[in-house]
Each structure stands twice: as C-alpha cells, then as structure tokens.
TrEMBL record:
Gene3D superfamilies: P-loop containing nucleotide triphosphate hydrolases (3.40.50.300). This is ABC transporter related protein. It comes from Thermodesulfobium narugense DSM 14796. Belongs to the ABC transporter superfamily. Keywords: Amino-acid transport, ATP-binding, Nucleotide-binding, Transport. Residues 2-234 form the ABC transporter domain. CDD domains: ABC_TM1139_LivF_branched. It comes from the Bacteria. GO terms for molecular function: ATP binding; ATP hydrolysis activity; branched-chain amino acid transmembrane transporter activity. One of its GO terms (biological process) is L-amino acid transport.
C-alpha cells in the first residue's frame, strides 16, 4: 500500500500542501480531483521527491520513502508520468522507451517489457523508429505512459493524461489505463476531467487549496452534491 501521511509542501512563501493524507491500496485506481492550482501536481511531485516536503511522510508497504532520492523511489516501484508528456522529441519511440528503463540492468527483461508495452499500445509499435516529436498529441501521451511502464512500476502516477486530447483519444487512453491496472499496476490519476476519472477509479479524493476536503468511493463522489456542483459541471 502507498500511504501519504500529512505532507506539507511550500514553494518559498506559498503553502501549496497543508497536510495532505491519502492512500492507494494495491490493485486500486484512485482519482485525485480539484481545481487549477489546488495542489494536485504538488502531491505527485512530493511523493516522487521531485519537491521536498517540509513535514509528513510517504510510505510504500510500510517502508519510509521520504528522504530518498527520486531515482531510488523509481527503483522501488513508483513512477510519475508528468503533465505535458515531456517525451524526448528528437529521439525515436524506441529510444524513448529505453530511456524509461534507464535504472534497470536486465537487458532481456527490458526487451520483453518493450514487447509488452507495444502490445498495450499498438499505435506505438507501428511508429517504433519514428522521431517522437512527429507523433500526434495522443500518441505522445501514449508514449509518455509507455515509457513510464518501462520502469516496471507497482504504482503509476498519471498527471492529466487526457489534457488537450480529442474525446476519442481520451477514451482510448482511459481504456489502456484500465488494462494497465488489470495487469497488476496500482494507479493514482490527477485529472481535470473529473467525471471520466471517477468513472474509471475505485475511489477518489478532492483537493481544495492544499487540503483534502472529501474522499470516498467513486460512486459516493459522483453522487455528492458538493462534488457535482463544483467539479462535475452540475451533471
Ligand atoms: P494545475 O491543474 O493547474 O496544474 P494543480 O492542482 O496541479 O493545478 P499545483 O501545480 O500543485 O496545482 O500548484 C499548487 C499551488 O502551488 C498553486 O498555487 C501554484 O501556483 C503553486 N506552485 C506550483 N508549483 C510552483 C513552483 N514551482 N513555484 C511556486 N509556486 C508553485
């Protein structure tokens, strides 16, 4: 289980996270929803030690991660696919996938995993030697997720996977996320698209200006008056 306990994160004078606690159980998909600037990305960065917390802890199966380097955290089975994809545009699809495995030494395992992720993302298989910068937005998002999978994460964190994508591609990506989960990876997903995220997830948390204000099963959140009014456009 991944356990985030009361983390506080500051950017200079800005208190971005005011004591956030949440959990992702093994096998779950958990959605983190909230308005722009509420602190969603900061939660993911704090877990991955991309930003240092001022207090609070993160545990993976009761092992303390807080204080470890990001590389160490990745090698322990956590991986963040950041917002905006950040793929290496001048490298080929294949080279990008290899970069996702940069902390691994098992050549044979890496080759096997490339085959596996290409089965999940057939569009990438057709474009393996193409420069990543020539892919469409949706394909670049797929590559970012596929590259993340190359570190063999137990817990995968996706920051706004549907951002800027046409609805048909959003559906395709969400379907693949479900498959990734069914193959044994637990997921924490940050999304503006709250309805879609909650429909995919088992549970969810709402974050408002650095605090978790509501948590529950996806069904509870989808039916909550407050969540519906604030995040689901009244649907
Ligand atoms: P968005 O969906 O817009 O990315 P978010 O919910 O992910 O929003 P964060 O990016 O976590 O929110 O930002 C939380 C708060 O921290 C915001 O007020 C933001 O302006 C501030 N913030 C984020 N990154 C930095 C930074 N590097 N330096 C200073 N302030 C920051």
């Amino acid at each position: 289980m991944l356990k985030v306990n009361n983390i506080v994160l500051r950017y200079g004078g800005i208190l971005a996270l005011k004591g956030v606690s949440l959990e992702v159980n093994k096998g779950e998909i958990v959605a983190l929803i909230g308005a722009n600037g509420a602190g969603k990305t900061s939660v993911l960065k704090a877990i991955m030690a991309v930003e240092r917390v001022s207090s609070g802890e993160v545990y993976l199966d009761n092992v303390l991660l807080t204080g470890l380097s990001t590389d160490r955290i990745v090698s322990m089975g956590l991986c963040l696919v950041p917002e905006g994809r950040r793929i290496f545009t001048r490298m080929s699809v294949h080279e990008n996938l290899l970069m996702g495995a940069f902390l691994r030494k098992d050549k044979k395992g890496i080759q096997d995993d490339i085959e596996k992720v290409l089965t999940l993302f057939p569009r990438l298989k057709e474009r393996l030697n193409q420069k990543a910068g020539t892919l469409s937005g949706g394909e670049q998002q797929m590559l970012a997720i596929a590259r993340g999978m190359m570190s063999r994460p137990k817990y995968l964190f996706l920051d706004e996977p549907s951002l800027g994508l046409a609805p048909v591609l959003v559906d395709e990506i969400f379907k693949i996320i479900k498959e990734i989960n069914e193959s044994g990876t637990s997921l924490l997903i940050v999304e503006q698209n709250a309805v879609k995220a909650l429909k995919l997830a088992d549970r969810g948390y709402v974050i408002e200006t650095g605090n978790i204000t509501i948590s529950g099963t996806s069904e509870e959140l989808l039916n909550s008056e407050h969540v519906r009014a604030a995040y689901l456009g009244g649907h």
